[in-house]
């Protein structure tokens, strides 16, 4: 079971520059240890409904395995090419001080539990 924000509340819609060409990264090879971890992580993400298998992908991005202090592996994805195809937000994020000041006097505060730090908001199913 993976926590996250319900699709009924929000999904992330990916914005791409018009007429951008999809990029298919050249496959990077993984050693046996890392490949086993990737297979297990992919299985968990599929079971939780966070990822689905598609037959003809237009964008391909490699996984990157990062060793954590605990010795376990963290699976990340190299979205460098996809990020270059996305417009940047024209506004800065607010500072933590401004956010705290804005919440003063409120009766209810809500926090997102960043249990795993990743996979909190699902992608819009219509995205490529």
From TrEMBL:
This is Gag-pol polyprotein. It comes from Trifolium medium. InterPro entries: DNA/RNA_pol_sf, Rev_trsase/Diguanyl_cyclase, RNA-dir_DNA_polymerase.
């Amino acid at each position: 079971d993976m926590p996250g924000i319900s699709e009924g509340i929000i999904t992330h819609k990916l914005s791409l520059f018009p007429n951008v060409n999809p990029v298919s990264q050249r496959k990077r090879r993984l050693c046996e240890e890392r490949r086993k971890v990737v297979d297990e992580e992919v299985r968990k993400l599929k079971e939780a409904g966070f990822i689905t298998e598609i037959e003809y992908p237009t964008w391909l991005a490699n996984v990157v395995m990062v060793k954590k202090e605990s010795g376990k592996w963290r699976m990340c994805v190299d979205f460098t090419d996809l990020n270059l195809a996305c417009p940047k937000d024209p506004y800065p994020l607010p500072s933590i001080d401004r956010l705290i000041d804005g919440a003063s006097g409120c009766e209810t505060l809500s926090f997102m539990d960043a249990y795993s730090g990743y996979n909190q908001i699902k992608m819009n199913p219509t995205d490529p």
